[in-house]
Design brief:
The chain has five helices and ten strands, in the order αββαβαββββαβαββ. By secondary structure, the protein is α/β, with parallel strands linked by helices. It has one domain: Rossmann fold (3-Layer(aba) Sandwich), CATH 3.40.50.2020. The relative contact order is 0.17.
């Protein structure tokens, strides 16, 4: 997706040749026009799939998933919570995930009331790096008995190997911008 790649080239900041900061348009301040194009592109890439729900993980995936849901006839969006409050149903699916950027493990949770064996799920997330968050979401969907229709990723850092762990599960994965390297403050796309 050239629009996304151009936005990354023009505005992303690189730290330590391993972290790409896109908080000015993707995960702190949000570029809604860009998100609309992202949603349309995910719909195009998964047009042949019957999707009844989108699942993501808090926090950065929520806005992308919600805008994408509009292009799938406004289907519900479910997000896995990292911090369950007292108001959350205690009957949940759970999975452990490790956050690369926060260097911390979380237990993510989704209420069993929101995922069932009747669902056909599209997983949406902002980044794919090592694949830990994605495997956690796959686990939640599998626990529910729902079918995974595919995985949509906005930015994939191919050099961190996350794609392989998901493809081994036989799931279609579509990344809109694939980064092969971050070097000397520059982004190198696949």
């Amino acid at each position: 997706m050239e629009l996304l790649k151009n936005k990354i080239r023009d505005t992303a900041r690189i730290s330590e040749d391993r972290i790409i900061q896109v908080d000015n348009f993707l995960n702190h301040q949000l570029d809604i026009s860009l998100f609309n194009e992202i949603g349309k592109e995910f719909k195009r890439r998964f047009a042949d799939k019957e999707i009844t729900k989108i699942i993501t993980i808090e926090t950065s995936g929520i806005a992308i998933a919600c805008i994408t849901a509009q292009y799938f006839d406004n289907i519900p969006v479910v997000f896995a919570k990292k911090h369950a409050g007292l108001n959350m149903n205690p009957d949940v699916y759970e999975a452990k995930v490790f956050s690369y950027t926060k260097n911390q493990e979380y237990t993510i949770k989704v209420s069993k009331a929101f995922l069932s064996a009747n669902d056909k799920v599209l997983i949406i997330d902002d980044f794919l790096a090592s694949g830990s968050a994605l495997l956690g979401l796959v686990s939640l969907v599998n626990q529910s008995g729902a079918e995974i229709g595919g995985v949509g990723i906005v930015i994939e850092k191919t050099f961190q190997g996350g794609r392989k762990v998901v493809e081994e599960k036989g799931v279609q994965i579509e990344s809109l911008a694939m980064i092969d390297a971050l070097k000397d403050g520059q982004v190198f796309f696949k």
